[in-house]
Amino acid sequence: MLTPRTTRTRDIRPLDGLWRFALDGEVGERPWATRLPIDRLVPVPASYNDIFLAPEIRSHVGVVWYQRDVHVPATWGGQRIVLRFDSATHSGTAYVGDELVVQHHGGFTPFEVDITEHVMPGEVARVTIAIDNRLTSETIPPGVLVTGKDGRDQQLIRHDFFNYAGLARSVRLYTTPVDHIRDITVRTDVVDGLGAVHYEVDTSAGSEPAVELRDEDGRLVTSGHGTSGSLSVPDPKLWEPGNAYLYDLVVRLGEGGDEYTLPVGIRTVAVRGQQFLINDKPFYFTGFGKHEDSDIRGKGHDDTLLVHDFELMGWIGANSFRTSHYPYAEEWLEYADRRGIVVIDETAAVGLNINIAAGLVGGATQRTFSPEAMSDATRAAHAESIRELIQRDKNHPSVVMWCIANEPASSEEGAREYFEPLVELTRTLDPTRPVTFANQGAARFDNDRIVDLFDVVCLNRYFGWYEHTGDLAAAEGALEEELRGWAATHDKPIVMTEYGVDTLAGLHSAHPGPWSEEYQIDFLEMYHRVFDRVDAVVGEQIWNFADFQTTSGVFRVDGNKKGVFTRNRRPKSVARALRARWMAMVAALDERTPIPSDI
Ligand code: GCB
Q1: Rounded Cα gap, residues 344 and 360, in angstroms
Q2: Could you tell me if the CB of 159 is within 6 A of ligand 1?
Q3: What region holds the Glycosyl hydrolases family 2 sugar binding domain (predicted)?
Q4: Rounded to whole angstroms, how far apart are CA atoms 161 and 147?
Q5: What domains can be seen in the chain, in order of their start residue?
Q6: How far apart are CA 80 and CA 179, in angstroms?
Q7: Is the pTM of this model over 0.90?
């Protein structure tokens, strides 16, 4: 699916701004057929939850309505007009005027619809969307709906981050010519120093496109013709971590026909033995699991925060992040492409484990993979979430690996039957990128049932926090034993995709115990000592980049505080220690980057 871009033949009208907003119970039978009251307006993009003070909005379970009017430019006559939502969390049903035009399930991927027949250039159109935040065993992520004794719907979720909802990403109208480019897929390769860009173009009327590859200065490198082909690039400038280079693939449908420009990075990714290779060179991941999360706007996309987060990642020496636990706004990947930051791209399949609490505190266990919990319907939704992720992100050079689930019950019976077809699907949709899942501590190297289906072992471990709390000596032993166990039993690279401790910014102690800034430093130092001793470890992504909001509960104090930065992006003490480690690693790999003088 192509991201909307203005080109010679395409125009965009952003629909971001203030929309009319109502809860389902506040409106009549057919809200799309009337004008919603204007006494409450909601900003787009933003999650609606934290903006208003009314508790019934913050913790609303069910449908809310967004509506606005849009002037369709008079100059758009004869064009194809598309309405596009970059996301609607977790499902959306959109109307133009009185007509239902599109429905979509899955809160973190885009959807769009041709509305040419529903609008008149030069006139005003009313756009309404119903957004439902409910999660069930048939959604990704899954959740459980219960009705409380007071008759209110309650949403139980199986992950700790707050269930923010609404239109958290941009909404746009855009145009294309009637005969248009529907999609472009590129795959790149480098053989004996010669770059290759293999392309496929899907066009609405089967027209044959002309294709040009241009360098960053706009100079023509090579060209081709037809709906698929390979362009050879002698002496290619590769897309490298920390040193991105992007060509432009310009696709045109005949003289004056539709035109689209796709940025392309030439690079290869492979797993060989216990190494992760980018451009045939061993790559070591440094960085974070993140969240789309900030004060007031919740998961609302914000370019200011995006650029600032990349600045902080650059400052600290991070070369990568994981889009834990859902696909982020596409702007994140576009910026990562430009900045040479490596991305592990994750679906929203978080919480496929109904026994995590029992694993930690004991208690009865039930079967996760069963008709009552994660069923065939869950898997169907999961398959769709993989399709949509790859469909959207397949062309981003920054994306080096698909992560199809976070912490599923991978040691439980039924896990293999559940996952095998999903891994196959991922590989069919994209044979070029490695595939992984983030493994949870209850599934160890000797009882995990699915890891051999995947290319890289990604581990989330909390020795020293949830286990061996406060006892870093015991934690160090347990961590090393586990890593060596994985390395000995599986000939695959290991990335630690989560390790971290809740840390209250400003809490200092001469006796470094849990929650203090000193403990966070000691904890990470201990993990890093162990990583440096185990060759199979090819990456460290700390949980989390920043503190983030969670559902209220006894395990969290105003959110998850495992951030290296606070929620408003101030560094905790550990940030400098990390910077020293990661900058030294960058400098060791790349003589162009000296170690900064202030560390
Ligand atoms: C995990 C989850 C992550 C949580 C984290 C924690 O294992 O993958 O979503 O936020 O632990 O802090 O408990």
Answers
A1: 27
A2: yes
A3: 12-177
A4: 22
A5: 12-176 (2.60.120.260), 181-257 (2.60.40.10), 284-589 (3.20.20.80)
A6: 9
A7: yes
Confidence of residue 587 (pLDDT cuts 50, 70, 90): confident
With a 6 Å cutoff on the Cβ, whether 426 touches ligand 1 is no
Residue nearest to atom 3 of ligand 1 (CA): 160
By annotation, the residues acting in catalysis are 407, 498
Rounded distance from Cα 509 to ligand 1 centre (Å): 25
Q: Tell me: the pLDDT tens digits for 239-289?
A: 999 999 999 999 999 888 999 999 999 999 999 999 999 999 999 999 999
Contact 322 CB / ligand 1 (< 6 Å): no
The number of angstroms, rounded, from the C-alpha of 224 to the middle of its chain's C-alpha atoms is: 33
Amino acid at position 572, single letter:
K
Using the 8-state DSSP alphabet, how is residue 290 labeled? Answer: -
Distance 73 CA to ligand 1 centre (A): 47
Ligand 1 close to Cβ of residue 407 (< 6 A): yes
Three-state secondary-structure class, residue 198: strand
Distance between Cα 362 and ligand 1 center (Å): 18
Pocket test for ligand 1, best of 495, 543, 551, 561 (most atoms within 8 A of CB): 543
Query: Are 24 and 274 within 8 A, CB to CB?
Result: no
